[in-house]
Amino acid sequence: MSAIQSVSHETRVFNPSEEFKRQANISGMAAYKALCDEAERDFTGFWGRLANENLKFSKPFTQVLDETNAPFYKWFTGGELNVSANCLEKNIDAGLGDKVAIIFEADGGEVTKVTYKELLTRVNKLANGLKSLGVNKGDRVVIYMPMSIEGVAAMHACARIGAIHSVVFGGFSAKALQDRIVDTGAVAVITADQQVRGGKQLPLKTIVDEALSLGGCEAVKNVIVYKRTGADVGMQAGRDVYMHELAGKQSDQCAPVMVDSEHPLFILYTSGSTGKPKGVQHSSAGYLLWALLTMKWTFDLKPNDVFWCTADIGWVTGHSYITYGPLAAGATQIVFEGVPTFPNAGRFWDMIARHKATIFYTAPTAIRSLIKASEADEKVHPKSYDLSSLRLMGSVGEPINPEAWMWYYKNVGGERCPIVDTFWQTETGGHMITPLPGATPLVPGSCTLPLPGIMAAVVDETGGDLPNGQGGILVVKRPWPSMIRTIWGDPDRFKKSYFPEELGGKLYLAGDGAVRDKDNGNFTIMGRIDDVLNVSGHRMGTMEIESSLVANELVAEAAVVGRPDDLTGEAIVAFVVLKGDRPADDELRAKLANELKGWVGKDIGPIAKPKEIRFGDNLPKTRSGKIMRRLLRSLAKGEQITQDTSTLENPAILDQLGKAN
Ligand code: 6R9
Questions:
Q1: How far apart are CA 643 and CA 645, in angstroms?
Q2: What φ, ψ does residue 532 adopt, rounded to 5°?
Q3: Hey, whose CA ends up nearest to atom 7 of ligand 1?
Q4: 8 Å CB contact between 505 and 511
């Protein structure tokens, strides 16, 4: 684990306004502390109470937490429920049937709204369609869809019949899609003919065809195709079926299949520190409880709110804060297709104004790019829009630098809206460390304090507690309901990755470094301590990119590191040794670099493309042959090497690699 540097001390503090506090679901620090105390005092009583108050079980659970096979924790055992029914029927029964569930805005600006009742009808028809194809409880269904009401409905249709969905982000390549289809053993793929981003039509169905042709996908019996653009795509007879044809002829009634609390709701792949992405497996009851509760606590959700999370359903944020949390909470939410910069960089602000969004949740990388755009063009500056509907804002995916935080606070929130900087992960299912907007004093750049019941701590390399002010390893000391259950098909890797023996085997290892403030105990996240990069809020394993590069026939060896980047947080820099000689010609090297970038883009997806590739005759290695990534990180940043290089076998290589191509 690499060294953790200390961070500068932030002294600005923003207390919740009296007005916000008065109406907040958790009002004031005393209320927050009371919940924390309850969890400390009676851990299982606390979680049991919340589950009973928030979830609708068809069969009540008999035990809150079963730790007999730790770290394979089980929550709410003996209970049965259906996640989709907890989102749809539960709210319809409570009188919200005609409330708008989703306001969908397409890339071209067309708006479609569905009520809770209408959404249930769509979900039921699609669920019946899946059943008619023979998809059963426990079967895996891969979803490779654009942002759409149909994408959300597809996830719910799976949940409704107890099928386990695995959503693959629409930017992933055929190879990455195939890997996930093979690993899950999916029986069906739900996709669209095309997706539309920034006015461009991009393929989806043809990528599915390619993925399936790569082999190992024999379990896939059907491909269900949502007609997004109407493009002419090849339909394989007997295998492929259009969604409207499949769902159109089905009944609009579909009894939800009740499943065990622990039944897997979904598998979502995320990068780890080794080459193969990890299939993070989530549960039904525990996962849903936290998605719902954090809507109430972190987002202070009220019946009249218009909630907007800008994430894609291909990431965990889209799962918890589009597909499940807001719908379980009976919210009206905005779902959008496209990019923040089309038709112009004012899209977010324009949409907030038109749909009167009250809660807005986005990523620092989007904020940073919009700061840049609005500095260049007043018309797309947030001040050119009426953002007075907003009352709360959030940030997720990566650390938000205090400057971006302040800009967001002033220009988007009008110095009126609290910002919840929510730290969490694919593995945690929902928020872990975040301000509560009606309680916690905000400090730009800090995710502040753990939610009640989340026993987060900072420890040293042996798992020993560190005092506040000292940077270390972020862990969680007790399980929580929405935690990862296992890595699909690889329980050993689950144990090793998240409950490592080095830390005593009982602490959940987040993989991030953190420090707590000496005065108020606030957490500041200091980035990953493993070989995982965070590029525009997307997790990328350095090994994954290295494996892709060395799979190219020209490449002998590759090492990938991250470099701080103003826009994307981190940028990918690859150091490559070719099988042949390193070309002396600048132009030839640039051409090769482009070729390899394209290769990685095709192999994994555009988000994995290195920003820079440098070629060397060799890589800096210790005498025992270990690549010295620490040095490569310095070289990528353009730093002078001041570290001790005496253990280096080939110090001369540093000169060559220190220069950009
Ligand atoms: C939800 C999500 C998880 C990693 C995590 C950390 C980084 C997320 C953050 C943050 C600082 C925040 N991260 N939120 N770092 N402050 N508020 O992003 O999940 O894609 O699995 O990424 O993202 O490094 O470990 P995921």
A1: 6
A2: -115, 130
A3: 398
A4: no
To which residue do tokens 């035990």 refer?
Answer: 63
Give the chain's mean pLDDT.
95
CA 657 to chain centre: 34
Name residues whose C-beta falls within 8 Å of residue 588's C-beta, 6 or more positions apart in sequence.
none
Residue 661 and residue 651: Cα distance in Å, rounded?
A: 19
Report whether 496 belongs to an annotated binding site: no
pTM of the predicted protein model: 0.93
Assess whether the C-beta atom of 569 lies below 6 angstroms from ligand 1.
Answer: no
Residue 317 annotated as part of some ligand binding site: yes
Cβ of 270 below 6 Å from ligand 1: yes
Distance separating alpha carbons of residues 337 and 105, to the nearest angstrom: 6
- Residue 362 near ligand 1, beta carbon < 6 Å: no
Does residue 423 line the site of ligand 1, with CB under 6 A? yes
Q: Which of 447, 440, 516, 519 lies closest to 36 in space, CA to CA?
A: 440
Q: Pick from 638, 551, 466: which is nearest to 6 by CA?
A: 466
571-624 residue pLDDT tens: 999 999 999 999 999 999 999 999 999 999 999 999 999 999 999 999 998 777
Cα dist from 553 to 378, 547, 571, 599, whole Å: 48, 12, 25, 11
CB 257 within 8 A of CB 143: no
Answer whether 398 contacts ligand 1 (Cβ < 6 A).
Answer: yes
Q: Tokens representing 393?
A: 């804002």
Per-residue confidence band for 106, with pLDDT thresholds at 50, 70 and 90: very high
Distance CA 141, CA 158 (A): 7
Tens of pLDDT, residues 508-518: 999 999 999 99
- In angstroms, what is the span from residue 538 Cα to ligand 1's centroid? 8
Q: Read off the pLDDT of residues 347-378 as tens digits, 9 standing for 90 and up.
A: 999 999 999 999 999 999 999 999 989 999 99
The amino acid occupying position 383 is: K
